[in-house]
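Q: Predict the bound structure with iron/sulfur cluster.
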Amino acid sequence: MIRGKEGFVLNKKPIGIVTALHAEASPLIDYFNLKKDIAFTKFEIFSNNRISLIVSGIGKIKSAVATTYFLGQVDPVCVINFGICGTPKPDYKIGDPVVVNKITDVSGRREFFPDMIVKHHLREAHVTTFDTPVTMDMAVELNLDLVDMEASGFFQSASVFLQPDKIAVLKIVSDYLELERVTREFVTELVQTKLSEIDNFIQRFSAVQFENSGVFTEEENLLLGELSSRLRLTTAQNHLLREWATAYKITSKKEIAFLNEFLHAKIQNKNERLLVFKRIRAKLGVA
Amino acid sequence: MWPNFSHIYIEEGAEKYPLTDVILSKFSNTFCVTVHHYKDIFNRPQQNFQSQKRSMKLILAVKKDNLVYDGSEFSQSMGHDNFYYNSMILNCVYNCDYCYLQGMYGSANIVIFVNIGDFFSAVVEKLQKPMYLAISYDTDLLAFENVIPLCAQWIEFTRAQPNLTIEIRTKSANFKSIKSLEPCDRTILAWTMSPDEVVEKYEKGTPPLRRRLEAAKEAIDEGWKVRVCFDPVIRIDHWKEYYSQCVQTVFEKLEAVKLYDVSSGVFRMNADYLRKIRKQRQDSDVLYYPYVFDKNAASYPETIKNEMNLFIQNLLLQYLPSTKVFI
Ligand code: SF4
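A: Predicted complex:
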């Protein structure tokens, strides 16, 4: 069970979605039947038992801050930045969903790469994140693919918490850099028409997530923690205990419940502790 | 067996090299993504090696320095003083559980350096003395030969350099990709042979012993110098039985007198790499044997190591003189 710092409780890690605008989020909220979680006050977060979504606000700084907050509080298994983008290229159609394989931050001139581990049938492209809206002339001159205002901020923050195979950016082409056309209603309608493709991508992305859940069951983790604290093991000894137990479990394919007997070992001094530690080591098959 | 790479990342500048065109021509349904520097993608923090292994990408790049390295302490020099190696490819199409590359690199994606001419020049600079160069070092070069014919180019280069001997080590069965070349007597094709129990359990994606043997036999018959390597020897249950059987199978298929030599070594790995791999994966018992971490290397305890080495040595000496056996 995962408990967020503000009291949010999840049975399993959800899939995280970060959107900039409420207009982008609302079709997803309806489609996935997400409920606003009032435990969170700093940002709007909507969840069900599978998906959790945060609305960040516009711009890479807001996206970075919201992503940091979201990943710290909700701890999703993976996270997707979803939202609209512009393009100077007429070969994209309005409404095209596009998976981003490269993000350039125009002000920092830095490049970021999500791991492209999902097999999908959508287009892929390179998105360039700007601090302010971009004109057609500028985008054509720079030969840009897609432009947005969040992806680089989102990605940099997400990378602090998650491996690059657990981060994705999915955009929907909303305009040819004529921002005046992009109204709230237009964005919502655009997302609504692509919900099945978006859902399909989210499902594929979550299906390939490979969580290294560790070798121990929850009880075994508790047992090792309890042993460490009852025997007052040092950090180095605790590390060794886990290493021996891991090796034992993997090589013998047996449980480590037998270590329970050491929970009640009588220890009055350092030497006795060392003796018990050595007995544990022998029990775990370390010569 | 080649993955159908979904993405090829191309470092700025690498697109000018002919090898890039050769590689790109092999993959038509692929997203090409340009990168400033290959390390921008290869050296990202916190990558998941095994997750990437399931969907490997290609990265084409230009290597600017360290085009040839002094021989590593983890590799046998086979009696050659001037032992060098190079790495035109980082990472491997196979996925052996015990592979040190998992600890050496953060990424499982495959980097191919396309500036082969610079690699040749770096070797020529050192050829005042005879040089022994392992060219299939942090990879399995022959397994890539259908995609990028690096072995063929190195063999032709070696033929023209009297002071150069190269070793191409492989677990592949891909001799056919260089079969059309004239044998070169300063090229040693070195096949790693393992019992099928080890292949199935730990050498994921590699051909079975039978196919490696067929390839090695074909190479010998064509007049190539062939080395056989039992390396790493792994202490699995019934290891004596499995390795006895394996050695016997090898010498039933390959005539001992026709082998250039045979080498063997027990599992060993840079200690930091093994520590790093253990942190990343807890799914393979070969990584969790109670190895001894000695100075920089992790391996079997001395008595066990000696027992294993002696056992394999005795097996090999039934077929070969001691001058041809390197343990
Ligand atoms: S064949 Fe060699 S380089 Fe390739 S995965 Fe196996 S051990 Fe590693």
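A: The pocket of iron/sulfur cluster is lined by residues B 92, 94-96, 99, 101, 139-140, 171 (CB under 6 Å).
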